[in-house]
Design a protein that fits this description.
By secondary structure, the chain is α/β, with parallel strands linked by helices. It has 2 domains: 186 residues, Rossmann fold; 117 residues, Rossmann fold, CATH 3.40.50.1860. Helices cover 40% and strands 10% of the residues. The chain is built from 11 helices and 9 strands. It has a 4-stranded parallel beta sheet. Strands 4-3-5 form a 3-stranded parallel beta sheet, sandwiched between helices. The protein has a two-stranded antiparallel sheet with strand order 1-2. The chain starts with 21 loop residues before the first helix and ends with a helix. This is Aspartate racemase. It comes from Chenopodium quinoa.
């Protein structure tokens, strides 16, 4: 099923601090799985612009055609949905909230999300508590994601984003041949941290950045690569932390034990902070949004999805400003 979401036509009560709303965004975690079906609104792609004009047409998310783009705004962002609908919805909330700051017109966007595709079902069913999935057909996964990218580009997207950590393991293959900017989530967060100009917390060492993620993401190595490209020292959880804090936290979430999951996540963060890291990247869909905005540890963490959303909004505003010159 291919579909797109339109930005809401009503004003958003979020202007000053998006982080204050992140717990509201993640409340749907507690919904039973049967309720998530209602989130799949339509099998028709919906495209919307800043004037709230909507057009719909039947088209498959993984199909491609030689037709001219049906959407012509120069600052349109194309969003490749993650392997779960929930992850895609959370990113959309972040993207719309960031784009609505400072009374700026909502950035036009197109979303291609197909959680019923074989590759998505296969990945989710083969993933065990964040460990690398076994028996995953990576060729089919890449073909599916590349098809979504082509769908968005042919629909008029002028910049592509992919709010899914593990999908970035195949970023090179998915982006191959694209003539549009394709933002890399790990690079976006690395560049933001570089601009923050942290100072080392330990004499004789560089600035250290911790990364909390599942084994599948850590083994792919793209967060380590992008951070090291910006001169950071990368600190990862050790085996004991993975086995006794991170995996149990994910298991607690599956049991709807939010308090237990939060306590375990706090432990994992603290174990990295005692190693003199300046900030911790929470690069895990399973663990995002757990920390309350007023938790002291939240100030020591960054969500790559926020960095990706901010980067996409900056690109869109720049593209619009360039067009208007």
């Amino acid at each position: 099923m291919g579909f797109s979401f339109a930005p809401p036509s009503y004003p958003l009560n979020v202007v000053n601090d998006v982080n204050k709303n992140k717990n509201k965004l993640c409340m749907i975690r507690s919904l039973p799985s049967s309720s998530l079906v209602s989130l799949q609104f339509s099998s028709l792609p919906i495209k919307t612009d800043q004037n709230k004009k909507i057009t719909s047409e039947p088209q498959n998310c993984n199909s491609s055609s030689s037709a001219s783009p049906s959407y012509s705004q120069e600052n349109t962002v194309g969003i490749i949905g993650g392997v779960s609908v929930l992850t895609t919805l959370i990113f959309l909330e972040k993207f719309v909230l960031w784009s609505s700051r400072d009374k700026y017109d909502t950035v036009p966007f197109i979303v291609c999300s197909d959680p019923t595709s074989p590759s998505s079902r296969e990945y989710i069913s083969n993933t065990n508590d964040g460990r690398p999935p076994s028996g995953l057909d990576q060729v089919r996964m890449v073909e599916n994601l590349r098809g979504k990218r082509l769908f968005l580009e042919e629909g008029g997207a002028r910049c592509i984003v992919m709010p899914c950590h593990i999908s970035h393991a195949w970023y090179g293959e998915i982006s191959l041949g694209s003539k549009q900017p394709f933002l890399h989530m790990a690079e976006c967060v690395a560049l933001e941290l570089k601009e923050a100009r942290f100072r080392p917390l330990e004499a004789g060492s560089g600035v250290k950045v911790g990364v909390i993620a599942t084994d599948a993401t850590l083994m792919a190595g793209f967060y380590q690569e992008k951070l090291q490209d910006q001169g950071f020292e990368v600190v990862l959880p050790d085996k004991s932390t993975m086995e006794h804090a991170i995996y149990p936290a994910i298991n607690s979430l599956k049991r709807k034990d939010m308090k237990g999951a939060l306590n375990l996540l706090r432990i994992a963060i603290q174990l990295l902070l005692v190693k003199s890291v300046n900030i911790v990247i929470l690069a895990s869909h399973e663990l995002q949004c757990l920390l309350p905005h007023d938790d002291p540890l939240a100030k020591k963490c960054i969500d790559p999805m926020d960095a990706l959303a901010r980067s996409a909004v900056r690109w869109a505003k720049s593209a619009k400003d360039t067009r208007e010159i």
